[in-house]
UniProtKB/TrEMBL annotation, chain B:
It comes from Sneathiella chungangensis. It comes from the Bacteria. This is ABC transporter permease. It is found in: Cell membrane. GO terms for molecular function: transmembrane transporter activity. Keywords: Cell membrane, Membrane, Transmembrane, Transmembrane helix. Its main location: membrane.
Length: 358, 309
């Protein structure tokens, strides 16, 4: 072979920051080919995808609206991924958070207390955490693989949501549509900026970013998460409990995903519908990796992924491109990122070694 | 014989529900036996399903359709191989990426085919025996892919335990360093195993879009790829048990349809939860006994191989 891959003596710090950019460049390059194949002018398509959605103040604020659930979910997932706990069921935890949180409003719709929304947010966190607690319990007690159990519970949560909105939670005045009544003012997320949909949930997401940053950098539990992830044996000798970390990371991730779900239903959606997320919980996996599992990275990565949602909608309206392009785009980003990550720990060398003559 | 007529249609639907799982499970089994964990089964199934469907609508030829599905699945698996085998990316993350990418790609490919009808894969009538009551339609009246799925289980068992190739594959999965030092091309063998897994997942997906419900819908696999992954743990990496597990899950999937027909007063969604809950339950029951898992799981599963020299 002409090229050989050689392990670096020490991982490359430069590459850690550079590979997301390389991945994005490769994704844009490939999407040029994709747009050509779909018969659209690539320059025009890229413009519609990445520039047009940021035209006005309103659209710019929408970027943060879309980034909010991604940020919350990805922050939660990243802490787990750091410890090699593979919770991929954030979508289900988001759904359960939305259900449990909004149950307060559904069963007490007349409440006008200022404490209603805070209580709903807390219930949302509890709902998400409880749902993530199932894989944690099954992992620590029975060794069941958390990847598969957390994912299976996504389907269960979505079906449960469907049972509710098609049955007991259906709005009696709703002409039999499968949707709840719209939330009252005291159950709504306050709008931060008039004329936009920017809501209190976005602040919660910022808080989560800051909080997770502090936690990972400054607290014992953050340290334990990192040690268990990078050197489980060393963690064991130091007396850190693997089980405790499994519990902690899953509950933490579930709680944040739950808050994300609640902030969607009492924010932009304003009622409970059969479908409350276009896969935010799954896209958050991409966000977490693209952000290098670091809160600051995740902040920017979630904005970028939010842009692909907006861009997908704009491109659909203006160019007639299918919405599915967004999904392909998001998948490609993660692919290229994982591929270029080889550069962090390895380097390519021209293979100069000659075969020895017999 | 009256009173038992319901058995035949039930068994027939169980078979159609189980067949995609048999394909995906047996393919991933080979992948895992070589020491590679590919969590992208769901994505490969979806791309296989849409490719098979498109080929069937465009050409009308079902050989081509199944071939296209297998090829599409293998190409997806090849991508996975490039990342994890050549570029040494994390297998768990790459598998997730493959699924996310497959969901998007299949939706994009199939967007003009949503809701289009296609002729269901023809049921065969082997030796004209499918008219025999009871066993006729079940044993002699299936479509070609059902027979292929059983055939593949037999071939894979035979390959793994009765051939030199199977021994090498298992050696690579159990100790890639040892296999490498005796001179076996670990990476090349894993590429083949991964692509075989992709091709089988592709066919499993195509079974959904061509036979189970002859149509294309976004995300139509509905988690079957993940259930197939759980099946392998359930089967403790044994081909025969993959088949048994697939039929068990097929039975659970079908239960909901018949329970509804029987007028059971439970929301349909609750019954639809059953396969997912059953998967969790099965994982718990099997994983409880870690020594059994450790004894049967390929020792190198999920580990990156980078030859030192």
């Amino acid at each position: 072979m002409l090229l050989k891959i050689e392990k670096r003596a020490e991982y490359s710090r430069v590459m850690v920051y550079l590979t997301p950019i390389i991945a994005l460049a490769l994704t844009v390059l490939s999407s040029v080919i994709l747009f050509e194949l779909l018969g659209v002018n690539p320059v025009e398509a890229l413009f519609q995808f990445f520039v047009a959605p940021l035209d006005t103040k309103y659209e710019f604020s929408e970027l943060f609206v879309k980034a909010t659930p991604l940020m919350l979910c990805a922050i939660g997932l990243s802490v787990g991924f750091r410890a090699n706990v593979w919770n991929i069921g954030a979508e289900g935890q988001l759904t359960m958070g939305a259900i449990v949180g909004s149950s307060l409003f559904i069963y007490f719709p007349e409440t006008e207390s200022v404490f209603l929304l805070p209580a709903m947010i807390i219930m949302g966190a509890i709902g998400g955490a409880a749902w993530a607690g199932i894989p944690a319990f099954l992992k620590t007690r029975f060794n069941a693989n958390e990847i598969l159990t957390s994912l299976m519970l996504v389907y269960v949560a979505i079906l449960f949501l469907s049972v509710l909105v098609h049955g007991p939670w259906r709005d009696p005045q709703g002409f039999n549509f499968p949707e709840s009544q719209t939330f009252s003012d005291s159950a709504d997320m306050p709008i931060l900026l008039s004329g936009t949909r920017l809501h209190f949930g976005t602040l919660l997401a910022f808080l989560a970013v800051l909080g997770a940053w502090m936690m990972m950098a400054r607290t014992l539990i953050g340290f334990q998460v990192k040690v268990i992830g990078e050197a489980p044996r060393a963690g064991g000798y130091a007396g850190f409990s693997q089980k405790k970390i499994v519990w902690f990371t899953l509950l933490f991730g579930g709680a944040l995903a739950g808050v994300a779900g609640l902030s969607e239903v009492s924010g932009p959606i304003d009622q409970v519908l059969p479908s409350i997320s276009p896969g935010y919980g799954f896209t958050a996996i991409i966000v977490a990796f693209l952000g290098r599992l670091h809160p600051v990275g995740i902040f920017f990565a979630s904005l970028l992924m939010a842009l692909t949602y907006l861009g997908g909608e704009t491109a659909q309206i203006n160019l007639g491109l299918p919405v599915a392009v967004t999904g392909v785009f998001q998948g490609m980003v993660l692919f290229f990122l994982l591929a270029s990550d080889v550069l962090v720990h390895y380097r390519f060398r021209l293979n100069t070694a000659r075969k020895v003559a017999p | 014989m009256s009173g038992f007529e319901w058995i035949v249609p039930v068994v027939l639907t169980v078979i159609t529900a189980a067949t995609p799982l048999v394909f995906a499970g047996i393919g991933e089994l080979i992948t895992e036996k070589s020491g590679v964990l590919n969590l992208g089964v769901e994505g490969m199934m979806l791309v296989g399903a849409v490719s098979g469907f498109i080929a069937a609508t465009v050409t009308g030829n079902y050989f081509l359709a199944v071939g296209a599905a297998a090829l599409a699945g293998a190409i997806m698996a090849f991508l996975f191989g490039v990342l994890t085998l050549s570029l040494m990316a994390n297998q768990v993350a790459t598998g997730l990426a493959l699924t996310l990418f497959g969901v998007g790609l299949s939706a994009l490919m199939g967007q003009e085919f949503v809701g289009e009808p296609v002729q269901a894969l023809a049921k065969l009538d082997i030796a004209g025996l499918s008219d025999i009551p009871f066993i006729g339609p079940i044993v002699f009246g299936q479509d070609a892919l059902v027979y292929l799925s059983f055939f593949m289980v037999i071939v894979v068992s035979w390959f793994l335990y009765k051939t030199k190739g199977g021994l090498i594959l298992r050696a690579v999965g159990d100790s890639h360093d040892a296999a490498h030092s005796i001179g076996y091309p670990v990476i090349a063998i894993r590429y083949m195993a991964v692509m075989f897994g992709g091709a089988m997942s592709g066919i499993g997906g195509a079974y959904l879009s061509l036979a189970y419900t002859p149509m294309w819908a976004e995300n139509m696999t509905a988690g079957r790829g993940w259930i197939a992954l759980a099946l392998i743990v359930f089967a403790t990496w044994k081909p025969g048990l993959v088949l048994v597990g697939a039929y068990m899950f097929g039975g659970i999937t079908i239960l909901q349809l018949h329970a509804q027909a029987a007028g059971l007063n439970v929301p349909s969604q609750v019954l639809s939860m059953l396969p997912y809950l059953a998967t969790v339950l099965v994982l718990v029951l099997i994983s409880k006994d870690q020594s059994r898992i450790r004894k049967h799981a390929p020792a190198c599963i999920g580990k990156i191989f980078h030859p030192a020299a």
